[in-house]
Every structure is written in structure tokens, then in C-alpha cells.
Design brief:
heterotetramer, A: alpha+beta, Ubiquitin-like (UB roll), five-stranded mixed β-sheet, 26% strand, globular, C: alpha+beta, Aldehyde Oxidoreductase, domain 3, four-stranded mixed β-sheet, four-stranded antiparallel β-sheet, 4 helices, 35% helix
Chain lengths: 82, 82, 146, 146
Amino acid sequence: MIDVMYFAWVRERIGLPRERIETDAATVADLIDELKAREPRYEMAFADLKSLRVALDQELSSFDAPLAGVREVAFFPPMTGG
Amino acid sequence: MIDVMYFAWVRERIGLPRERIETDAATVADLIDELKAREPRYEMAFADLKSLRVALDQELSSFDAPLAGVREVAFFPPMTGG
Amino acid sequence: MRLSVQQDSFDLGHEANAFAAGITGAGAVVTFTGVVRDNGGKLAAMEIEHYPGMTEKAISGIMDQAMARWSLADALVIHRYGRLVANDPIMMVATAARHRADAFAAAEFLMDYLKSRAPFWKKEIGADGSEWVAARDEDEAALTRW
Amino acid sequence: MRLSVQQDSFDLGHEANAFAAGITGAGAVVTFTGVVRDNGGKLAAMEIEHYPGMTEKAISGIMDQAMARWSLADALVIHRYGRLVANDPIMMVATAARHRADAFAAAEFLMDYLKSRAPFWKKEIGADGSEWVAARDEDEAALTRW
């Protein structure tokens, strides 16, 4: 079980801020493929990975990072703070 | 007649903040030579021109600048504002 | 060193004075304040979303880096989230150092990292709809200078 | 645009708020404040001498250059002269711009020119005598970047 969180327009497209997912995905990319296979709203949210960022346990990471031991995955667009 | 002003340690070495001087000096350097010839305190103040700056009519200038038409000459060390 | 991620507004003058009063031996104090632009009257509000937990972690990490890299006497970051209107202060950075070059460099470094590495997302709400603010290429490029 | 060369002290927070309140359409406000360092308790006072007339002329010229060179919404310079003690504010610069890079660059430019081109001279007065502050080579060198 893994906590998956969505922010900004990723959250809006998927329609919820977080969910708990049962997955055997080995990497972030594998998890994304699983999610995209679920429903069109996920496919839409993950259509362009270049416009997405991922954090694993609240640290910026990359799509090929392994998920072993990770409790929290977050997907969001590039940050626009400051 | 020209107004000559001194600031910071130049003022302290010469012992006065300003004076009116009757001079035919063509350039700042000529004026300095005249002043140095007057008294040791002037010679001391103008001993090292590299540590001095000059302003003509309140604009930074150079020692070889002509004095024609100038009403106010100021001598001082490099500025230390801010 | 103080970090505040908050919904409430803050007073630039009050924060600047409190920051300056707390430092000793530092001759140079720099502040940066970000204010909501009204976009020529087209902006009704700005919504700032963030990632609680990661926000504090990311900014603390950035501040630790700044403290280690420059000779800072102190540093402050305040960043708001939630609903803001035109002319509201969004965020503030303050740095104090013995020499001005360190205070300026650290403040710019903190701003560059806050812009692109702290998990905040701005949405502009106008009369004719709302839009997520797009990240600017030059903000990402600004990171390469550090 | 406001310039004040004054003997009286000033309040950083008050000035920062007044400056920020006066600008519109600018998202970025930078302030720099110079404070008298106590040099580890050795400083009794600081005397700042200036050249009335030339001071205002030189700083106005520097501010005009900054306004022309960057897209500034506004700029402020306050510089004191006379007798100051440790922790007194010496001077302040504020800039406002649409983008932070302009506000930062203009504030640093103003500081670099104020340091070496505005006719102020500082004298540090300690328990065991007084000394004119020497100009730093790096302050003169800083001008070459603009």
C-alpha cells in the first residue's frame, strides 16, 4: 500500500487530492503505467511527463526511481512559488 | 578666486574645511603644487595623490583636469558610504 | 533562522524590524518581498496550493544550504498559501551578513530555489476564469548559476 | 523615486511599508539596510561626514541611471550623516520591479555606487582613538560588473 498525492492541475484532472493504492510497481514509471490503464482521467493527467514532477517521501525524485520502501508518492506540475 | 574644500582626513590634516584661494593654476595638479608649496600641512595632505580624489563643481574629476570656469574644488579620500 | 509557512497575511515592516533587531554583528540586511500583481485589474484573486510537510522540509533544506554557503548571521523565510488578493504580500525572504555581497547572494539564492524547488503552485483567478501559473523557463535556468 | 540625506535616524519597517504601499503593478520589492556594526564591542560611535550638495547630486544621478537601466516601478535611497552608535541604521535602499531579477540587480547597483561614488566618509570612534574607514579594493572592483 502506498499513498499517492496529486497537486494543482494534476489533482484537478484526476479529481482527488490523494488515494491509497495497492501496487507491485517497481518504479514510478511503472506506477504511472498502472494508473494510466485505469481510467481516461489518469491517462489525461499523465499524458505529458515532461510537464510533471514527482516526489518520493517528500523529496523530488525521477520517474525511473524505484518504489521499494516508499510510503508517499506525489505528482505535480513544476513548482511556481516565490 | 576659487572655493577649495577638504573632507575627512584631508580636512583634518589641513586643519580647515574650506577656503577661498586666489590662483592662476591651469589644472588641478597645478593647484596642488601651489598648495604644497605653502606649508607642511598641505604637503602632508597631498603627499600621496593615489589616496586622494578630486571633485570639480561637485563632479568627480581627475588631477589633470583644467580649472578654467570652475568655482568649487573639493579634495577628499576615496568615499566610504553605504 | 526562522521559517513560517502560513495562511495569514504578514506585515513586511514588522517582520523586517523584528528580523533586524535579532541580529548582532551583521552590517547588511537584505529583504525580498513578493506581492500579488493585479495584472492591470484583471486578477480577482490568487490561490496558492502547497504540499504540507514537504514545503517545510524543502525550504529548511534550502535555508541550511544558504547558511552553510554564505557567512550569514541569520535568515528568514515566510511563505503564504490559500487565497490572496491583489497587493497582498505572498512571501518574504530576509538575510543578514557582515558584508552586503553575502546578504544579496544568499537572498537571491533563496528566491531562486523557492521559485522552482519549494512545492507551491499558484492559480490566478480572473473575471473570465482561472488558470494555473506556468513555470517560467528563466526561473529554472536561474538555478544553474549557483 | 525618493532620496533623503538626513541626520535623523529612520525606521526600516516604516520605510519599507511606506515604499511597498506606494508601488502598483510591481511584484518584487527588495530592500537593503546598512547597520552600524559594534566590532565586537570596540566601537563607541561612528561619525559620517558628507559633502552637502554633491551628495544629493551624486545619488540622484545614480538613481536616474538605475531607473533607466532596469524596469523599476520605484526606488528609494536614505543615507544618514552625523554621529551614529552601534546597531543604528546607516542607510537604506529599496527597489520595486515586476520581476525579482530587476529589483535585485538595481538594489545591488545602487549599493555598489553608493559605496564608492557618493561623497560619504566614515570614521570609527573607539575607546582607544578614532580612525577613518579605509575604502576596500573589492568595493571599487564591484563597480566593474555594471
